[in-house]
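Q: How would the structure tokens look for this protein?
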Amino acid sequence: MALTREQMAQRVAQEIQDGSYVNLGIGIPTLVANYIPDGIEVMLQSENGLLGMGRYPYEDEVDADMINAGKETVTAIDGAAIFDSAESFAMIRGGHVDLTVLGAFEVDVNGNIASWMIPGKLIKGMGGAMDLVAGAENIICTMTHASKHGESKLLSQCELPLTGAGCIRRVLTDLAFLEIKDGAFHLLERAPGVSVEDISRLTAGKLIIPDHVPEMQLDA
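A: Here is the predicted structure in token form.
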């Protein structure tokens, strides 16, 4: 069974290291804030100018002025700092973000990412994604494995305009967790109940499958 958006966020959160500075992109990545593992301290950075972003607020905690880059209301942890977007992007461009989690339309076997434009469709635009892929060494891309028409989004070569080239190393889809290296997708884990055959069928780019592919370990 394919992962839900919340399960994808939960699995990505398992990759966050104690003491990290982490930027969460718009969409599924923002949900990661709700699943930070207990016992670790993480500073979540939002490109609109918030360092120390917390989980989504409960109804009685909502502050309309406290928002993330997707204009969703959020909370702030103790010790958070608020500043302008120029300061935020200086932090990103200066390489001070340890991990970036981004959504995408397409990713290919060379680590290229297309996430900002689909010809003929109204898309909000590049936003901060170009700076994030250029300024971060460690990027996890979250996306559905295929379109609603069953067309693979993991390709031999991206067909849409690129956001960045050769910058993506790991991809978490609703079906699998994969590493990109040596011109191929390497299958690391599969979603619970999803077969290797299903993943292979929906992966257009070169896929390397080890002898044993474990299922992801997720909380019930």
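Residues 111 and 168 are 4 Å apart (CA to CA).

The longest helix spans residues 5-13.

Upvote if useful.
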